[in-house]
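User: Please predict the structure of the protein below. I'd like the answer in structure-token form so I can feed it into my own downstream comparison script.

Assistant: Understood. Taking the following sequence of 142 residues as input:
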Amino acid sequence: MHINPAAPDRTFEASLKGDLKTLNAHLPRRRKSLSELLEEKCPHIECGDGSTHYFKKKELEYLIEILNNEEKQTLLLPIIIEVGSNKGNLTVKSKTGTEAKIFSKILGMPITCKLNVITIFRPQLTVLRKVLKTTTQYAFTI
């Protein structure tokens, strides 16, 4: 029997997908806009694993100071930071670029959104997470 080492290993791929699903169970079922969260007494979202994720008002108020009214309506929280195996880079998908504006303010340097993707580096992540601990979440990818 000939085995092609370049052929995909379906069993391994299925196992990996299952593991990633488990790792990402904490992600929100539905994200909410900053404006929507500001109307709630206890700003929160429901997670895929059935738990509730609460946002710190202090973080939401910080975002209010940075963003204009339109951005408050379009920014979906939590901001999802994708962690993959790509040489230490992390990515955030962004349709509006609002997340890049926030990151630029926190990091004190220009951060750009190219083709709806923002790339950040691990040292920057530490700074971002200190300021946006409850308004960001990790998603693990391949």
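That's the full token string. The beta strands are 32-33, 44-46, 52-54, 76-77, 79-83, 89-93, 113-114, 117-121, 136-140.
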